[in-house]
Amino acid sequence: MEDKNELLKYTIPQLLRWRVKETGTKVALREKDFGYWNNYTWGEYYEYVRKIALGLGKVGAKKGDKLALIGDNIPEMLFMAIGAQSMGAVSAGIYQTTLPDEIADLINYMEATVVFCNDQEQVDKLVEVRDRIPQVRKVIYEDPRGMRSYRSDDWYLFIEDLYEIGAAADAENPDKFDALIDQGNPEDVCHLCLTSGTTGLPKGSMMTHKNYINMGIQITKVDFLEDTDEYLSFLPFAWIGEQMNSFGVAMATGITINFPESVETSMEDLKEIGPHFMFGAPRIYETIRSQIWLKIDESYWLNRLVYEKFIKIGEKAARYSMSGEKMPLFLRFMNRLGKILVLDPLINQIGLRRLRRAYTGGAALGPELFTFYQAIGVNLKQIYGQTEIVGIAYMHRDGDVRSDTVGKPLPETECRISDEGEILSRSPSVCAGYYKMPEKTEELLEGGWLHSGDAGYIDENEHLVVIDRVSDVMHNSNNEMFSPMFLENKLKFSPYIKEAVIFGDKRDFVSTLINIDPIVVGKWAEDRGISFTTYMDLSNNPEVAELLKEAVADINERAEKDHFRIKRFAVLYKLLDMDDGELTKTGKIRRKFVMEKYKDMYEALYDESVSQKKVEAFFQYQDGQTTTVEAEMLFYTMEGIA
Amino acid sequence: MANLKIEDITLTFGGLAALSNVSMDIEPGLITSIIGPNGAGKTSLLNCISGFYHPTSGEIYYKDRKLSKASPHQVSSMGIARAFQNLELFSGMTVLDNLLLARHKNLHYNTLQAMFFFGKVSREESKNRRYVEEVIDFMELESYRKHAVGNLSYGIQKRVEVARALTLAPELLLLDEPMAGMNIEEKEDMVRFIIDIQQERDATVVLVEHDLGVVMDISDQIHVLDFGELIGSGSPEEIVKIPKVIEAYIGEE
Fold first, then answer.
1. Given B133, B140, B199, which is nearest A148 (Cβ)?
2. Can you tell me the distance from the alpha carbon of A177 to that of A182, in angstroms, rounded to the nearest whole number?
3. What letter would DSSP give residue A397?
């Protein structure tokens, strides 16, 4: 194999030109439209980019200008982005679900002068805020449907017209495009990638050509890709997860990118394409598994029987293959048989039969999901990284998949844990900083290392383990670090516990408020003939408390560090709820709010003499009425914890 | 361009007059709505236009050609298509097959030719498929293409029904309560489609609809029927001022 690092001397447009020379007639992009898959070769791809770059120049875009892209994934999105990059402009993606006001703010922050929208839906958002974005000179659209009445206004430009302008410019001066591309430097910023801002406006991470290409090269050093491999582009383009494939991996390897017909059909299109690798957030993998379960459940008894039998064998075999251990001969035989009989046809039905590797990132994925996917024959692996390091900096190696870690760094990526426990990384893929935010940039890149903001450690197998956001980590009175989310997740692994809130910041020990799961615990109580009326009643039941004590004791026994152990707990009389402001819209606990609201209980948790306390339970109904009920709360202390 | 003239038509079933002396002009390129209480004769009027019923007296002209005695397939080949209130689709067939079938009159090959799928047959079929795919794209039915119609939700089936009418490339599209039984979101989508049909496909739309909000929003012209009689015609602004209409339809003040 040639030394891929060679390619680092190119910018993305230069690399595209190199691809045309190497494999110009090979299919680079494929889009489903009107029910057919339409191909674009690398040569055609390059020609569209040429027309866009020259056309943009003619309509007044200059080097250093920003081009915002809003819309679903279509080949034109890449033509526009790389076209802009060819002429030294900077592309930037905005999520297609963004509301008009926010779009105006983002466009103003980025100082975009040209905006590309895929259809009328997105154009209409700009129309709404047009007077707030005076610097925008042109709005280019791809789908002419519903745009007829806009045609008379030269603020709007149909992409086909832009192609014509570009083609005319090319005929005028055929060498201009090459000259433009030659001006590019791999270290130049080529794209602004918005990072999900939890507070205020997102930050634009300044990505260079080299950032993307390096990432594409390094990941394929670990997991090799053929240039005949297929990839389905179904993640939002504004997300780094999509750009790293279309700018990075595709350019570095020459794979084909396939664009689904519409967002709704992407699962159907997945079946038709049968990609060789895919990347997605945990939710996608959870959805696919639920679909499999549902279909199996609806199937007839023989199918179910065979599936149940072989999925168990598959799971057993998965444990060997994930750890890279040698499988016993009989298990290997049975596993092979299961693949032939049921599991291969099954994943073929979803379109995952050709898949060599699937990556999950963005959030934690339950360990049983890894086992499930490995069992059905999908090599699912965890990756970890930030937008600022082009998405992937750490990942599992084949035969070394551990569900509690995020794997090892990619080649040429260095990892260090700071004294505060923060994960720091260094690689050629680390971005140049945040756009127009020098202070934030300094914080991010302090000392030449990328500060992830995540707390973590490196375990005995040299795998990186991510615990929590540094800002969410707590310290007890001895200044020992622990992660409330980490402990809460452990509690929630118990089927009886629906939600848990961990306390213990600057206190002597860890304590928790627990929400029981009304369905599971209700069923458990019924089975044992324990009578109860309301959720509050069930929560206060001493037998339920015994059940929870066992669960907590179990976690304490397996605690990695002594100070992780939970000393006291109480069962909350109501479920935490979004409408009451206790949970965020994404279902995360608003810890400060909960602590304020249930101050009485928090104090009782840290007063070991209290085992019972009367509290006022406050309820607000959906129609706005409120009632206050007096409740007797019980507090429990775990034995044997200092 | 379509220009439909209805001149003094009366339709009686035995002694019952479903329509009596109704006259109206449907202007080309507009969205014209026909409203009225239940049993006012709206669907009967559409049935007369599309050739299911023949008026007892009076004439209907489409582009100066007499329609009053024409059969449904003759009407359809003049460029008039209709989407039915009660879906007229093959529920066991896929969306794609339903739409392809609707275009059978555009296929010009015989059974013998059809046995050998090449040359003219294959060309015609590809052309046909292309047209149907454009309609699928227009009505945003991509994700249902291969689903059996019977398994789809009612709102989507309605959309397929309109798509079936569109595959005939109509100049005049008759829509019989396209929004009945839909939820708000489906209604909003359908309104968008109707406006697009008028603007993007240059079709004249005749809409029979109960939802007054929708009718007032999108119609260029409204005709009000009550007990088979035309009691008012005009733009949405004009119609709400006609006393008879207020009394019969919107209710007394």
1. B199
2. 9
3. B
Residues contacting A584, CB < 8 A, separation 6+: A578, A590
Which parts of A518-589 are beta strand (E)?
Answer: 566-571
> Are B136 and A35 inside 8 Å of each other by CB?
yes
Residue B252: predicted pLDDT: 56
Percent of chain A having pLDDT more than 70? 98
Cβ–Cβ of B130/A146 closer than 8 Å?
no
Query: Considering the domain A475-637 in this protein, what is its CATH number?
Result: 3.30.300.30
Q: Which of B136, B137, B142 sits opposite A264 (nearest CB)?
A: B142
Q: Are A64 and A88 in contact (CB under 8 A)?
A: yes
Sequence ranges of the domains in chain A: 38-184, 475-637
Complex-level ipTM: 0.80
Q: What is the pTM of this model?
A: 0.82
Where are the domains positioned within chain B?
A: 1-79+170-253, 89-162
Per-residue pLDDT at A563: 86
Partners of B156 on chain A (C-beta within 8 Å) are none
Q: For residues A122-128, give the mean pLDDT.
A: 95
pLDDT > 80? residue A431: yes
Which residues lie across from B188 on neighbouring strands? none
CATH architecture of residue range(s) B1-79+170-253: 3-Layer(aba) Sandwich (3.40)
Q: Is A607 helix (H, G, I), strand (E, B) or coil?
A: coil
Nearest 5°: CA angle at B230, between B225 and B235? 80
Give every residue of chain B whose pLDDT is below 70, as ranges: 1-2, 249-253
Question: Cα–Cα distance between A550 and A602 in angstroms, integer?
Answer: 22
Edge-to-edge strand order for the sheet containing A497-503? A497-503, A510-516, A566-571, A626-637, A612-620
Give the pLDDT mean for A32-61. Answer: 95
pLDDT per position as a tens digit, A504-538 = 999 999 999 999 988 889 889 988 999 999 898 99
In chain A, whose CA is at the least distance from the CA of B133? A34
Q: What whole-number distance in Å separates Cα of residue B253 and Cα of residue A240?
A: 61
Identify the CATH class of A38-184. Answer: alpha beta
Task: Tell me if B134 and A34 make a contact (CB, 8 A cut-off).
Answer: yes
Task: Provide the mean pLDDT of chain A.
Answer: 90
Which of B242, B154, B174 shows the shortest CA–CA distance to B33? B174
Chain centroid offset of residue A547 CA: 36
Please enumerate in sequence order all residues whose Cβ is within 8 A of that of A623, keeping only pairs 6 or more positions apart, or say none.
Answer: none
The tokens of B191 are what? 């309104």
Q: Which residue among B133, B137, B143 sits closest to A268, beta carbon to beta carbon? A: B143
Number of Cβ within a 10 Å radius of residue A593? 15
